[in-house]
Amino acid sequence: MxxxxxxxxxxxxxxxxxxxxxAAARENPAxxxxxxxxxxxxxxxxxxxxxxxxxxxxxxxxLDIANEDGIEALDSGENDDPIPNVVGVPPxxxxxxxxYAMAACLLLVVGVTFTLTYNPGPTAPELAMGDxxxxxIYMEAPEMALMNSGANNSVVNxxxxxxxxxxxxxxxxxxxxxxxxxxxxxPCIVIPEYASAHMMVQGSSGTxxxxxxxxxxxxxxFQIRDERFNGVVVPLDQGNLILVGEEDxxxxxxxxxxxxxxxxxx
Amino acid sequence: MSDAPVIQGSNKQQRYESLVAxxxxxxxxxxxxxxxxxxxxxxxxxxxxxxxxxxxxxxQNDKAAKAWLFTILRRENARLYERYxxxxxxxxxxxxxxxxxxxxxxxxDRELLHNAIKRLESDYREPLLLQVVGGFSGKxxxxxxxxxxxTVMTRLFRARSKLKQDFGVDADDVDE
Lengths: 266, 176
Description:
The complex is a heterodimer.
Chain A: H1 3-12, H2 19-27, H3 29-49, H4 58-76, H5 95-117, H6 124-139, H7 141-149, H8 158-167, E1 170-172, H9 174-179, E2 182-188, E3 196-202, E4 207-213, E5 222-225, E6 229-236, E7 239-246, H10 252-260, E8 262-264
Antiparallel strand pairs in A: 1-8, 2-3, 3-4, 4-7, 5-6, 6-7
Chain B: H1 12-35, H2 38-55, H3 65-83, H4 104-119, H5 122-132, H6 138-145, H7 149-175
């Protein structure tokens, strides 16, 4: 082993050199010096990066995530275990807890009412994203024309569809196979840095394009349209579902089918 | 191979709590070094664990929990960066654990090394942090970063070579 290779192997993982590296170091004092210095520097690096002080209270804030969601799960019957009685939190049957729960419900009602009444609508970046998907469809217009004409009647290979969905970080449940008229699927890049999948299904007025992309979910569902197409952008947990059809297409059935049968995979 | 955390508990909440207890500190430290911004790192960690909580049922192999969590964090970082591009705040001096007994020279060395790590390009800094903070093997780092193993090894080598070079240069400047 020459010095270059020795350095490469040591520097890749000084904390756990393999037996071959250790043997080379035993036989060559210069190599041993390189190993010792690398391990010393690595210990300093470890000491430094691991010495960052974790903010006080972060642990509890992270646990609160589950507690807040856990309360909703309790109501739905998903979680039959009692909420742990943390010190300082009164028992569930106390008057305090009842008033606290009432106040929380009131706040929820006020918040929902406010949101429904004063929905600010999509932001400019969100609208721009919607436009990009409509533009993408124009780029694929020749393919869509072929589909609409019925000239291409090839049967979709679901194994290929699953692979394409995986590139966009999703998997489709069986409902889509059983109930959709999906005849096209292709990976595509509409928003840079985010892989997305473009599917086409047969709608009542023509082809409906269905996109899934694992980028930031939009704040609220909103409509997109131009002189030919109408569409909708739907936030779905870890990304967005975008549907675009002809101007007079009713997208609701396709929207419901995909949003209910789509799972993000990490 | 990284130490597999012990996720204990028979229900989702217990599993989540054990996941948090085992990993939140490492996750925060990694977030801190890639964000270079303490408040942003906290936001990132909270978003990460929120997504982890909601997807916990999809984690089928508890031994992969750490890699799974760090993968979520990296994706959340990309999303946060898309929404908010902070000015790079100098993290020097923020949240460094001070050792009371440190000699002035070793404190200076620590700051020099801190600067050298901060200056590393993210392509080199991230695999280094995954190895040192996360304790991941080369193979695990390759999976998290979606690179091949050889590329990971090369980047780790280059990261440490650059640190050695920069740290050595900074130390020489101080000595002059």
